[in-house]
Structures are given as structure tokens and as C-alpha cells.
Amino acid sequence: MNRVAAAVLVETPLGTVGVEATETGIRRVHLPDASLRASETPGIGSAAATAVDVAAQLEEYMRGERETFDVVLDWQGVEPTHRRVLETLCEIAPYGTTVTYGELGVRAGVEDPRDVGVMMARNPLPLVVPCHRVVASDGLGGYGGGLELKRRLLELEGALPPTLDLGDV
Q1: Which of 21, 66, 88, 89 is deepest in the core (most CB within 10 A)?
Q2: Mean pLDDT, to the nearest integer, of 132-158?
Q3: Per-residue confidence band for 33, with pLDDT thresholds at 50, 70 and 90
Q4: Calpha distance 79→82 (Å, rounded)
Q5: Considering all CA atoms of the chain, what is the largest pairwise distance in Å, rounded to the nearest integer?
Q6: Cα 20 to Cα 129: distance, rounded to the nearest angstrom
Q7: What is the mean pLDDT of the segment spanning 83-112?
Q8: Which residues are catalytic?
Q9: What is the pLDDT of residue 80?
């Protein structure tokens, strides 16, 4: 099935974020990366309207003005177990909280925390489906956008205390 798609970039305090949407809903979020590219216009129709709306919500979130997203997710291409884990994450880790890979796995019916880690790394909807809130039992764990971005997102949400800038000490 050929689906109409749209894509936009949005400048946020934490970098440029990309959003892809279809007529069904949001399909992909691209974390800040200098190599992101988009066309001059997001397209037309409901896919474009969705992409623009989600981009605005992400910008509000990264300014600390939004805690939840009002979006419809397009899960096409996400296999059922992966989707179940991502949906469970949304249910058990609201804004300002964290959950361990193991804890998420138990709640979603996945035995190996490493499998959960792989699923988080392949999350097509980071930020909206908050894989940055999944941490290791002994630290932050990994993050597709890098540990510095993960730390900044968790600080933004109050799940971690802000890092002190000690200058050139």
C-alpha cells in the first residue's frame, strides 16, 4: 500500500529533530543530528498537518513546556513484540520517571534485558515513545542519540539532577 508521507525538521534547544508522518499518524522521529535533511515543504494533506503538529509538540517538550504528546502513532513496520514493549514503556514510565531494561522486560513479557535494549535502540519514535527513560540497573545504559542527550532529557524531566557547570576547575 502506497502511503502519503510528509517530513519536517524543527529546531529545538537540544538540536534539530526530524519528524515523518503518514495519513495514519507519526511514523518516525529522528533525534538531533547534523546530517538531517528535509524538503522545502512538508507536503500536503493530513500527513503534513500531523508532521507539523508533532514537530511543534516536540519543540514545546524540549523547551520544558510539555510533558505528554497528543499524537496518533503509525506502527506499520514495527513487529508485534517490539510494539508491545514500546507500548508498555509508554504506560509505565511517565514524564520524570525511569524504568530499568529488566523491569520493562518483565512488564512486557521479554525475558532478557539485552533484548529490551536492542528494541529501545530500534525505537522508530524516540522522545514520543520515551526510550530515554529506560536505564540500566547500574547507570544510564545506552541511547541512540548519545548519552549526553539522554542525560539532558532526563535532567529536563527532573529524573536526574542538573549537571553542575564547574568551569575550568
Answers
A1: 21
A2: 95
A3: confident
A4: 5
A5: 59
A6: 14
A7: 97
A8: 131
A9: 98
